[in-house]
Amino acid sequence: MTNIEDLFCRGLDFNHLYVLQNINNLPDVNKIIGYYEMLKKRDYITEDGILTLKGQEVIALFTKDFQLANQETSSVVNKNDNTVQDNKQTFSNWVVELHSKLQQKLKDIGVTEKVKLVFDGKQTNHPYFCSVVDLEGKIKKFISRYRMDDLKRIEACLLKHCEVRNQKLLMYILREGANTGSSLASDYESYVEEIISKPIKKADFF
Predict the structure, then answer these.
(1) Where are the alpha helices (DSSP H) in 61-131?
(2) pTM (predicted TM-score)
(3) Residue 114: how many CA atoms within 13 Å on its side-chain side?
(4) Which of 3, 18, 148, 150 could hold 61 in an S-S bridge, CB 3.0 to 4.6 Å?
(5) d(Cα 174, Cα 156) in Å, to the nearest integer?
(6) Domain spans, the chain
(7) Could you tell me where the DSSP H helices lie in the chain?
């Protein structure tokens, strides 16, 4: 079954997919709101506007590495540093899990609706968060450009940035164009774990 067939079998279409992928940046349009409310009733979105596991599964169908979702990597358990790698993990699945963790982090610090940037301690009208698809694409570009592929370190930096929110999340990861650069790269280099453990590399998922 293809990802599109899977989507249709769930009783959804591309309008529903659009809402799920852009959950934090939806336009205030009645038709869009109708799709949003339907997805809430069918448990794809929580009452707080957070993707449920069902919603994350739908988005995962359309990430670029969907074809790898059923490939298995060897399960590795290292008793010395307690490093465990899931035998069905893929890079796309990791991104979906990361997206969920970022959403939960924002919820934990009291930010649940239309997440905003913060300047001088005050929220602005500019959105901070992004879709899973955009997050995956930006992290891939970041890894390719800077050769910084410790996913555990990337995750820690992104979770920390949820508290700061002084740049859009995607711009924090990688700014493109004339003003190219990456605040994530700077934080990545200066990041120090309290407990040193084996890093999780992007290559470990392939």
Answers:
(1) 91-108
(2) 0.57
(3) 7
(4) 3
(5) 16
(6) 1-62, 79-206
(7) 3-9, 14-21, 30-41, 53-60, 91-108, 132-146, 151-164, 169-173, 183-190
